[in-house]
């Protein structure tokens, strides 16, 4: 099943899905204001920073929240195990992909992202907050593959680990967000379209804090690579341990297709 849904298909299925508005921008402001000004009919707002991620710290800038708290937030938004979920953001698919990944990782089997996000919707908006029946979804972690920090070097050496940050951040020339510049040794920089990787080669992704990399995993799923792994803590977690090696500049040529 494709992880995306078109606006046209969503119109027909709107009454039968749980719809989540997760509009978000790095550094704010919260998308709650945009939600109040107008949202898709029936949509419930969830804030990526406040509801779907834990506080920044040793786990990185966007770690998973306490799982009991996550389950409570999802249930309050109406998420149930037997009801499809559709998520949308402002159109860059960053927040929607991270929400999709979180729900799939937590065990929900039917989650899709609105292709094109909020700008793709042309069937009317509302300012009314829907009355939401609490859901029954139970968070059961581990349903999508992840890469832990102690696995990342070996993964990058033997497989393909995409660093999806901008090239200048990967090379360590600039670092506008995190305190240390560079990349995980062996990682392949892919800030745009991801190169095709053979089916018998494992593939994973990381970014600055696990948001953009979740979009990469979503895109890989759309090509059939449902084995794609996410390093959730990403670079902001990697640099919390000074014993972890850091590379700068370009890596020796490594063809992701080989």
SS elements, strand count: 9
Average of pLDDT = 96
Please report the number of helical segments.
9
End-to-end separation: 27 Å
Radius of gyration: 18 Å
Quickly give the structural class. alpha/beta
Helix content: 25-40%
Q: Secondary-structure element order, as H and E?
A: EHEHEHHEHEHEHEEHEH
Uncertain spans: none
Main β-sheet, spatial strand arrangement = 1-5-4-2-3
Account of the 3D structure:
By secondary structure, this protein is an alpha/beta fold. 27% of the residues lie in helices and 11% in strands. It has nine helices and nine strands. Strands 1-5-4-2-3 form a five-stranded parallel beta sheet. The chain has a four-stranded parallel beta sheet with strand order 7-6-8-9, with helices on both faces. Strand 8, helix 8 and strand 9 form a beta-alpha-beta unit. The mean pLDDT is 96.
Set out the fold topology.
Elements: E1 4-5, H1 7-13, E2 18-21, H2 32-37, E3 44-45, H3 48-52, H4 67-76, E4 85-88, H5 94-105, E5 111-114, H6 149-158, E6 160-163, H7 167-170, E7 188-189, E8 203-206, H8 212-222, E9 229-230, H9 234-238
Parallel strand pairs: 1-5, 2-3, 2-4, 4-5, 6-7, 6-8, 8-9
Helix pairs in contact: 5-8
């Amino acid at each position: 099943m494709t992880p995306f849904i078109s606006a046209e298909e969503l119109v027909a299925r709107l009454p039968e899905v749980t719809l989540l508005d997760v509009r978000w921008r790095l550094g704010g402001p919260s998308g709650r204001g945009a939600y109040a000004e107008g949202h898709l009919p029936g949509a419930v707002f969830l804030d990526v920073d406040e509801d779907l991620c834990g506080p920044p710290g040793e786990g990185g800038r966007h770690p998973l929240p306490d799982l009991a708290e996550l389950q409570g937030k999802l249930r309050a938004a109406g998420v149930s195990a037997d009801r499809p979920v559709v998520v949308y953001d402002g159109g860059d698919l960053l927040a929607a992909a991270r929400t999709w990944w979180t729900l799939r990782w937590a065990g929900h089997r039917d989650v899709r992202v609105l292709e094109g996000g909020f700008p793709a919707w042309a069937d009317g908006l509302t300012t009314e907050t829907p009355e939401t029946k609490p859901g029954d979804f139970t968070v059961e972690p581990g349903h999508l593959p992840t890469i832990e920090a102690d696995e990342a070097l070996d993964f990058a050496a033997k497989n393909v680990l995409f660093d999806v940050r901008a090239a200048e951040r990967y090379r360590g020339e600039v670092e506008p967000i995190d305190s240390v510049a560079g990349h995980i040794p062996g990682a392949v920089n892919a800030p745009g379209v991801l190169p095709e990787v053979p089916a018998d080669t494992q593939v994973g992704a990381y970014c600055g804090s696990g948001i953009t990399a979740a979009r990469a995993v979503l895109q890989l799923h759309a090509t059939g690579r449902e084995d794609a792994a996410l390093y959730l803590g990403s670079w902001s977690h990697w640099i919390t341990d000074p014993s972890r090696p850091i590379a700068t500049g370009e890596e020796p040529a490594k063809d992701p297709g080989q």
